[in-house]
Specification:
The protein is built from eight helices and 17 strands. A hairpin with a 3-residue loop joins strand 12 and strand 13. The protein is elongated, with a radius of gyration of 22 Å.
């Protein structure tokens, strides 16, 4: 079995950036991605537009040209696909890592397709795979989803969108524009402050004119086959309902991190321990990159401010390798 210098877990934009950085440093690496290339972006809504401009999504100074200043999902998929293929990056798709252990100086990585040994691990798995659940009766009904792809299934239906973030607001607006009835249920007193600045007035105007109904300071307490029970300061409200789109956010796979020995903060944020200078975790040779560094604070790190992690980590690995050989 060949011993790799680096195993990169996660084939999103930051994983691609890490692969580029490792390749430039002459490191023997492989990227393991459980789904498609940039799997999270692939699963974004079909009509999604990024908050960031295209140049802020670039990696390794490779130009990202889009039709508009803020690229859409398809343009981003094309860009990262071209970066990966034109640079002939060593990426193995649809290969899920099931365990990472370190019985000695080397990491042992087991996937559902193969086994590997490596001197270093870069973990950049993101957070899009595990939804924050409502934890209410009926959440397991077929009419409930925690992801939104497109509006068509919700046309001519009574829909409840849960959440006040960009994903919830985008879904509510698109479903309404395509002909679905929308009620948005928000835990707080207003639409989230971090909603895209050109979208926020749109949703506020639709709510004000009554096109989209909004219930603030509210929580769903039960989901039934044809109804939803909502708790408000004024008491319970029961709404007729066909679909619930619960876009309340997502979280990293903390169980996977802990299984590798990564220490998490002892509060409700679960921030992993790492050296901000090298991005190395408390496990020697295991580095963290991207949004996973923020724990539950999934808004802290994103593509445009964590792409720098790739060069930092690659340099740290080279220095660590040199020190081990001296």
């Amino acid at each position: 079995m060949t011993i790799k210098d680096v195993i990169i877990i996660g084939g999103g934009p930051i994983g691609i950036a890490c692969a580029l950085a490792c390749k430039k440093k002459g490191l023997d690496y492989v990227v393991l991605e459980k789904g498609a290339l940039t799997n999270s972006l692939y699963n974004y809504p079909l009509n999604m537009t990024f908050f960031s401009t295209s140049e802020k999504l670039e990696i390794d100074d490779i130009p990202f040209i889009s039709n508009n200043p803020k690229p859409n999902r398809d343009e981003a998929l094309e860009y990262y696909r071209r970066v990966a293929t034109s640079n002939q990056l060593n990426i193995r798709l649809f290969e899920k890592v099931t365990s990472v252990t370190k019985p000695n100086d080397l990491f042992e990585i087991v996937s559902d397709k193969d086994e590997y040994k490596a001197r270093n691990i870069i973990l950049c798995t993101g957070f899009y795979d595990i939804p924050k659940m409502l934890n209410v009766p009926g959440e397991d009904l077929p009419k409930v989803t925690h992801y939104f792809k497109e509006a068509h299934p919700y046309v001519m239906q009574k829909n409840i969108v849960v959440g006040a973030s960009n994903s919830a607001v985008d879904a509510a607006l698109e479903i309404w524009r395509k002909g679905g009835e929308v009620t948005i249920v928000v835990r707080g007193p207003q639409i989230g402050e971090r909603v895209k600045y050109w979208v926020r007035p749109d949703i506020m105007n639709r709510i004000e004119e009554g096109s989209i109904k909004a219930i603030f300071n509210a929580n769903i307490s039960e989901i039934k086959e044809s109804e939803v029970v909502i708790q408000t300061p004024e008491g319970s409200v029961i709404l007729e309902n066909d679909f619930v789109i619960a876009l309340t956010g997502y979280r990293p796979n903390f169980e996977f991190l802990k299984s590798m020995g990564i220490e998490l903060s002892e509060d409700d944020q679960y921030i992993p321990t790492y050296n901000e200078t090298t991005m190395e975790s408390n496990v020697e040779g295991l580095y963290l990159a991207g949004v996973i560094c923020g724990g539950m604070q999934t808004h802290k790190w994103f593509i445009e401010n964590s792409r720098i992690h790739a060069d930092i980590i690659a340099e740290a690995i080279v220095e660590r390798t040199n020190s081990l050989h001296t």
